[in-house]
Amino acid sequence: MQVTVYGATGTFGSRLVSRLRAQGHSVIAAHRGIGVDTYTGEGVTEAAVGSDVLVDAVNLMTNNRHRALDFFSRSARSIALAAAENPGAAMVCLSIAFRPEVAESKLFAYYQGKDLQERVYRRLVPADQLLMFRSAQWYELAETTSVSVGRVIFAPKMRVRALAADEAARLMAEAIEAGERGTVEVAGPEISDLAAIAAKIARVDAAGRRPRRVVPVPVPGASSGDGLIPPAPRLSAVTVDEWLATR
Question: So what's the pLDDT on residue 106?
């Protein structure tokens, strides 16, 4: 099977490419470094030629509403048009597990962008070709969303059922091999919050030294409840402690 992965050098895309190749699949790793830009559409159709599956793993971390809506809608549209040029090819979109109230909040422009991305694919890609793969937040997000000031780490107190990015990639690779369609949600084995995960990372990174202090920063709205908790996800068994032991 040949798979084109857009966003192949990102946190998720790079892991998915490695998994698919290890499983014996031919992978076209599409990214801006080789002239494939999903936002402008440059090289997108060419990268899809001959592939059985197209995967949208592109990302832009922003909480600017205009940038989020513009980027995710334009990128999704350019990849969906490439899928239309490959009749029969499956389309897989990496999205995030969140409930409608999160995207409706003005606090979460990033999630509004992801919500629009999903709607673009559902409108442009036939249902029998589309897999919407909605992942809960990754353990790695606890680091990327934290801010360090001296020996203090400010981390968002967001209620999540996180999993390792590598586990999310494994679960997607399995879904691709199985030819799944529709919507699949995946999550980790336990409900926690990003600040608690950041504190565990800080203790491990200290390696015998006094760990930096983690200060939870409450995030108002739906993310403090169950807004980011998928109701019936496919679960990874890898806990945050097990993930930390292998880093």
Answer: 76
Name the band, by pLDDT with cuts 50, 70 and 90, for residue 82. very high
Cβ proximity of 110 and 62 under 8 Å: yes
Pairing of strands 130-135, 182-187: parallel
Instruction: Identify whether the C-beta of residue 190 lies closer than 8 Å to the C-beta of residue 239.
Output: yes
- Segment 168-225, tens digit of pLDDT: 999 999 999 999 999 999 999 999 999 999 999 999 888 778 888 999 999 888 777 8
- What φ, ψ does residue 12 adopt, rounded to 5°? -85, -50
**Residue 130 to residues 9, 57, 95, 118, 119, Cα–Cα distance (Å):** 23, 14, 13, 10, 12
H/E run at residue 62: none
Minimal CA–CA distance to 224: which of 138, 155, 141, 160? 160
* pLDDT above 90 (res 93): yes
Burial class (CB in 10 A: 0-12, 13-18, 19+), 151: exposed
119 CB-near residues (< 8 Å, 6+ apart):
none
- Rounded to 10°, the helix 109-124/65-84 angle is 20
Letter string b/e over residues 178-200, b meaning 16 or more CB atoms within 10 A of that residue's CB? eeebeebbbbbbeebbbbbbbbb
Residues making up the chain, counted from first to last: 247
First-to-last CA distance in the chain?
Answer: 31
Global pTM value: 0.95
